[in-house]
Amino acid sequence: MSQFVVNMIFVAASFGLYTWIAVWARAKSTREFYIAGGEVHPVFNGMATAADWLSAASFISVAGLISVGYVNSSFILGWTGGYVLLATLLAPYLRRFGKYTVPDFVGSRYDSRAARLVAVVCLIVISLTYVIGQMTGAGVAFARFLEVSSTTGLIISAIVVFFYAVLGGMKGVTYTQVAQYIVLILAFTVPAVYLSLQMTGHFLPQVGFVSDFGNTGQPLLHKLNEVVRDLGFQDYTADVENKLNMFLFTLTLMVGTAGLPHVIIRFFTVPKISDARWSAGWALVFIALFYTTAPPLASMARLNLLESIYPGEGIEEAMVYEERPEWFEKWETTGLLTFEDKNNDGRIQYYNDKNEEYAATTAAERGWEGNELTINNDILVLALPEIGNMPSWIIGLMAAGGIAAALSTASGLLLAISSAVSHDLIKNTLFPQISDKAEMLAARISMVGAILIATWLGINPPGFAAQTVALAFGMAASSIFPTLMMGIFFKRINAKGAVAGMSIGALFTICYIFMYLGWFFIPGTNNFPNTPEFWVFGISPLSVGCIGAVINFLVAISVSYATEEPSEEIQRMVESVRYP
């Protein structure tokens, strides 16, 4: 049986499962469409939350980022820490409030249509920018494993999401995400276990990570440091120079994660307030299973890749291009791996030619005239089973897992957008008298519209696609998170303070990002080069979200104390949420 047929079987079987779940769990009311009827078990909700979070970026890109070294551990620390904030500071209180969406909470807590509308705008910007990566990630997985164009893959993905999201709403999405979590965690951990056994003899990758490499008696990480150092790269375990920026980036990811609307609404779906906290706890368990596997997988995969390019004992004799393996050829067709023979020796020289000292000495002595292999880090996980000569069923499982990761988060984001438009914009702002049946129709039409826009953005990604993480997390950190925190814990904050805080915090963050990455991400429009020497106090655009959050807090508090107090009714409502 060919590998293509195996991949098709795994992907088709997973799609069939998702569609069956959508039919079984179809929403029959707006309550089921928005919050799955509030009847989801905390374990299932924790699993669905984990799937909602473990996106294409996590599944495909995190290991690639960490393979560069310790410097990118901020991603795991920040994303996991965000769930600790959710579990302790937001989840139980938001569930006690009993609303459907984040703008619904903001509008009711601050008794303000303006606050609700600002929250809707922030939610749509965050969700739309974030969903671009999910749709393009699905396209990459389809293009490689099903041997179709990324456009065709995106359209197939959109059709699948259409069935289980439009038909099932939150109820269908929740139980589909439970299935998707099982698929993606198996697809991520099984190759990691296989590779750990190959390279260290240990079943658990977390143990293999700190064990000896093969029969050499040399620790795996020491071996990896030695190999990357010989190629002019920074040591895998090298320290970080700008620790302030690393701290701020981690903090931005934490508060940004805690402020992501599609994650927050998951805690509205459980039966009881205590279940919200348990859901967050279970989500941490399921996420930790993934994120504790990512560092060992990243280090082993990078070492495995380098040893396949330099198959001898040293780095003098690289792989002959004409003798490259099948996996190499297949990934070349995706454009994520490219080769250019700069010295015309027929071999693949892969090294850090940006290291000037290394290029002038070691590389020059060997006759190397520049790095000849460009590897997109996103292929590190998806190509792992093929590079490691793993069984065909593991490659098929990886195909299903990569697609599941993209679809699970995409569906959550699309549902957040649909709910904000139908419930907060149409029902609670423009047409308050709309019936339940009409609202359900509006929700489904909004979902269809969101899917069409997301698919179009996936097929025609804007030039700023790589910068959307900075914008999504910066917006969530500087607008949504502080507003929720003050709404729960500070009854003196009024509508004027909330609107001013959200607006100024988000505006500051967006402007800072645009100053370095280009206004509206248009190339050439940036005011300053995006390099450390031009950053204010060494703070990169990726790290500025937490500063925007501080500004939000300060502005909201200042404006609230300079204006009238919230009504007694609002203050009693806040007290009842905190002290039932």
TrEMBL record:
It holds the Pfam family SSF. The keyword Magnesium does not apply. Gene3D superfamilies: Sodium/glucose cotransporter (1.20.1730.10). Keywords: Membrane, Symport, Transmembrane, Transmembrane helix, Transport. InterPro entries: Na/Glc_symporter_sf, Na/solute_symporter, Na/solute_symporter_VC_2705, Sodium:Solute_Symporter. The chain crosses the membrane at residues 6-25, 46-70, 76-94, 114-133, 145-166, 178-197, 246-268, 280-298, 393-421, 441-459, 465-490, 497-522, 534-563. Its main location: membrane. It is a multi-pass membrane protein. CDD domains: SLC5sbd_u4. It is found in: Membrane. PROSITE patterns: NA_SOLUT_SYMP_3. It comes from the Bacteria. Belongs to the sodium:solute symporter (SSF) (TC 2.A.21) family. PANTHER family: NA(+):SOLUTE SYMPORTER (SSF FAMILY), SODIUM/PROLINE SYMPORTER-RELATED. This is Sodium:solute symporter family protein. It comes from Denitrificimonas halotolerans.
